[in-house]
Amino acid sequence: MLSERELESCYLGQFIPVHYHHNMLMDTNRMHSFRAAIEYVVQPGMKVLELGGGTGALSFFAAQRAEKVYCVDFNPDMVQEARRFLALNRCAGKVEVIHADAFEYLPPEPVDVVICEMIHVAMLREKQVEVIENFKRRYAQKFGGPLPVFLPEAVLMAAQPLQQEYDFEGFHAPIVQFQQPAIAQPGTVEMAQPAVYSVIDFTQANDTSYRWEGKFVIDRDGTVNAIRFITKNILSVVQERASTIDWLNHYMSLPLEQPVRARAGDVLQVGFAYRAGGSIQSLQARLTAHVLYQAALQPQVVAYA
């Protein structure tokens, strides 16, 4: 019988269909932010490694300045696709596309920058955290220090209670929803402000398990029936401007098995636990919410004639 980890690997693993990668090219926020961060971080003459290269677009950005780029992917379809696209963009001489497992591959020489975009909301499904932690240990053993600069440099993850509409032309279906940030979502009511539950700094050692219990003060009367997960990727820190180049993933809204009625001023406690790279279902199964404290009842005002 397969273990939970093996089942999750089969569930998605590193073999995302090719057309998913094509859709990533059409995500203008993703492409613009990564291009800006890579142009800032990669300096002329540098050596760059991309783990999980996909179509090769990020390796192409790096090749505009780097001396050499190693682009690694485990999916043979994506290796073929990256080689085709990079040849069309006349980068084949600078970028070496390598068919290898990111969990095992090490470059033949030290590199200055490692680009790794195996990112899903809440660090689920894909193996971003595990791949980088594994890479850091193996790289240090082979080359010693210092470690390369990682892109992204850090990730902030937050949660937020919602009242979410699940009516589809009269058909009630509480489903996982992915929502584009910074756009009003019909049928979505934010019941409290978001709370950060984890910060990943790729320059440090990181745990691959998350367990959190947090409290939210409810802003309005309603029913909390979903929790939104927010993932902000700090692609690069621009120190001279005291700013960052960021990429915000699509929001992920997970329905609660037991909706919770809440009033403005109530304190809602939310809890969950999951492993980085785990399935969405593994998070849903351990997602809970309940009212911890009720808002004080307002005294009635009696008018006297």
From TrEMBL:
It comes from the Bacteria. Signal peptide: none annotated. Residues 48-137 form the Methyltransferase domain. GO terms for molecular function: histone methyltransferase activity; protein-arginine N-methyltransferase activity. Keywords: Methyltransferase, Transferase. Pfam families: Methyltransf_25. This is Methyltransferase domain-containing protein. PANTHER family: PROTEIN ARGININE N-METHYLTRANSFERASE, PROTEIN ARGININE N-METHYLTRANSFERASE 3. One of its GO terms (biological process) is methylation.
